[in-house]
Amino acid sequence: MTPPVCSSPADSLSGSSSVSPLLANVVDKPQLNADGANLCRHLHSAAQQTPTQLAVAVQQAHGGLLTKKFSYQELSFDELDKLSSRMAFALEQYGITRGMKAVLMVTPSIEFFTLTFALFKAGIIPILVDPGMGVKNLKQCFAESQPDAFIGIPKAHLARRLFGWGKHSIKKLITVGGKGWWGGVSLPQLLSQAPVDKPYPMAQLSHDEMCAILFTSGSTGTPKGVVYSHRMFEAQISALKHDYQISHGERDLATFPLFSLFGPALGMASIVPDMDASKPITANPSHIFAALERYQCTNMFVNPALIERLGEAGTDNHAVTLPSLRRVISAGAPATIASIKRFSQLLNDDVEVLNSYGATESLPISKMGSQALFATTDITDNGGGICVGDAIEGVDIAIIGIDNAPIAQWDDNLRLPAGEIGEIVVSGPMVSRCYYQRDSATLLAKIAGNDDVIYHRMGDLGYLDADGKLWMCGRKAHRVEALAPDNEGSIKRYFSIPCERIFNTHPSVKRSALVGIDIDGNTTPLICLELKQGLSCSCSAQLYHELRELAQTHEQTKGITRFAIHGGFPVDIRHNAKIFREKLALWAQATYKE
């Protein structure tokens, strides 16, 4: 059996031999199925059972810093269901129909929710991208995904024209929040001819048919389009219900657009604060605190950068508490224990921050409560990696040997024993089967198993402990393989998280980053340092001496003797935590002197 690949429509129609039989149904063409699937069935059910209950509220901030006021746009489940049905009729009348692909570049808003659910209802495939990935990457994403339609705010249309996004494939244009000056039609024009309060015949799709393309952020490589099916979405909804115990009637403070869509699907209201969702670090904490208080939110999905920002703002203002929250879900990157502890001071004593591990290709995979995480501090600070907890129900986590080559067929003999560091591999119903139009990436990341199971190689390194808990040791691409310090010609592997967490314990170090540089033809480990505020490079000689001594006390860092102070690490826009080590490696190579 060959590993899966995703084909283009031409491949699937021509019977190209490049398409694996395992994935023959995961192509971008409609598949008629009388007993099919559609994510919107959850929304329709909520609209029937609790029609007047709040589904979506979008905050808008007005005034200056001292005269801040807020207004809110709201939709009930019945209103969201009916408006998205009207929108689906309108899209269909305009010529955007089932099986077509539509870029959606709309800020979190009432329109974002209604359009997304309309696309799902109609069987139109939304293409969701992170605007923070950069102009070059965005153009590449659209070139690969070949969208038929572009739905966006005026700023997105301006960028589309300036940079030529999708110019060879896009035939339909819709402007949201502005006039239709950018070609095509405006949203009000589109809706003017659509029927009101008429039930839309929801598209019934195969459970494994492509229903969305979500592009990875590109923070650890080139963005890739992850093919989502309704089976994947259903598995994610199931995990949120059972593993996170989210129940009907809750209210979620949603700071990430994709997660906010799960709210209505779970019978939970999504409360969207006034913030730039692509840059959470710039969010105004007062906006979020105001929305939490007004709607008495019980759940909050937040990334590590925002946890730190809210914790600092809340503890500086001792009047801030968040008593309505029952759970806080953190994902996207590892949050520091210090930032979680600070933020937890705003919560009730029995409320935990649930740290989730996963990726766009497979989310969620594991979770760990903050109290259990706090108990692992000593292990992490001594190079044991970051514990990301136990597997979600239905997920199998395995560790395999570190290898950059494709693996065609899964074999349980690939599994490494407990305690041994290798690549993290996962399988489960929320694991994607392929990338769109990226066959080579699919071959590298996916392993075909028996009974139609797909194993995804996370690209992360880690190990399972004796109790089955997963520990993260960093990206596979960020390991440094160098001559062992014993000079006997053997190779030693240095892993980013274990090494960096040891050096981060030094009181002068804010954070560190392991890179490899070339010295006399040999790869050599070097630690880039970002110092705490107020410290300067004038202390470097003494600092480097202390860090070399620290390195010798841990097996993970023995042999590391080179350091370089950097003014401020390049990091990803969304999480402000994923360090661009590739850029740091180039800087270190150019600036390091013996």
From TrEMBL:
Q: Which SUPFAM superfamilies match?
A: Acetyl-CoA synthetase-like
Q: Where is the AMP-dependent synthetase/ligase domain?
A: 46-436
Record-linked PROSITE patterns: AMP_BINDING (PS00455)
Pfam families of this UniProt entry?
AMP-binding (PF00501)
The protein's superkingdom reads Bacteria
Question: Which named protein is this?
Answer: Peptide synthase
* Gene encoding the protein: oleC
